[in-house]
Amino acid sequence: LEPSQLRRQIFLAVRDLLVAESRRRPLLLVCEDLHWIDSPSLDLRLEIDIEILPEGRLVTIAGVGRGIPL
Question: Which of 4, 34, 50, 62 is a good FRET partner for 70, with 20 to 30 A between their CA atoms?
Answer without folding.
Answer: 50
